Amino acid sequence: MNFIKKFIPTLSALLHLRLLFSVFLLPVFLFALSQATDIRLFEAILTFVIWHLLVYPASNGYNSYFDKDEGSIALIEKPPAVDKSLYYFSLFLDAIALVLTFFVGWILFWAVLIYGVISKMYSHPRFRLKKYPIISFLIVFIFQGAFIYWSTYASIGNFSFLEDWDFNFILAGLISSCLIGATYPLTQVYQHAEDSKRGDTTLSIVLGIRGSFYFSAILFLLSGILVYFYWESVGLSDYFWLFLFISFPVLVLFIKWFYAVYKDPAEANFKNMSRMTLISSVMMLIYFGILAFT
């Protein structure tokens, strides 16, 4: 009975799973769903559940357990103290995710296993890849972007792992990574003091507050260029113009926030970061939702 109790999450543990954060990562899944051919509905639904209701929350919880943040973190302004149930429940969610991949296929099994190992090395004190600015960025850039797109696409549709790696398939993964990477340093601009106290040299610390905005602007511009080439190559350039139209509110908010931060670095705070993350996520959900369901 005591063994079972270890895996029962407390309210604090449930909050640290940050389930809403999984919604912010949903555009990559929707992009893969919109581009996959001969979609298998059962596998598509199960793949969504595995990534967004199990793997991502498990990763968030595991990361929070070892970070033990005292200041604001993504989506939680005043994080409660973590407890051991968060650690065990995160591992439990990972285990359930791996079991469910057997109903989808071997590609998803290996994808979930690799993602789980990397995400644990990201935050575990023995490895703490999070403290290395370039490595930590590349982990997020690759494993929350292209890696998720490619493995999801391959798991839910008609895909030959050895034959279907064409230019557009690779390009779509790079678009996913650039969009994820563009937001990454902005989520760190208000955490410099706490990250430094823990010994984590994040990319945003290396770039500085203003540099983080410049870096995000470059990556978002690059993602727009890649979106143009992607849709142009398949003769659907209208989807590029739709991307620009839906992204316009994000661009306006980004410029306004950057202007405020340029005048006063204190504007790089949790409230403004949360608003930027929310608006950009909602706009990308709308765009990729249109692609997936029309």
List the helices and strands and how they pair.
Elements: H1 2-5, H2 11-16, H3 19-24, H4 26-35, H5 41-67, H6 84-101, H7 106-123, H8 133-156, H9 167-183, H10 192-198, H11 203-233, H12 238-263, H13 270-293
Helix pairs in contact: 4-8, 4-13, 5-6, 5-7, 6-7, 7-8, 8-9, 8-11, 9-11, 11-12, 12-13
Quick summary:
This protein has about 290 residues and is mainly alpha-helical.
Your description of this structure?
The chain has helices spanning 2-5, 11-16, 19-24, 26-35, 41-67, 84-101, 106-123, 133-156, 167-183, 192-198, 203-233, 238-263, 270-293. The protein is mainly α and 294 residues long. The longest helix is centred in the C-terminal third of the chain and has 31 residues, at 203-233.
Unreliable stretches (pLDDT < 50, length at least 5) are none
Counted beta strands: 0
The termini sit apart by 50 Å
Coarse shape: globular
Helix content: over 70%
- Rg from Cα: 19 Å
String of helices and strands: HHHHHHHHHHHHH
Query: What about the largest sheet?
Result: none
* Structural class by sheet pairing and helices: mainly alpha
Strand content: under 5%
User: Averaged pLDDT, please?
Assistant: 91
Number of helices: 13
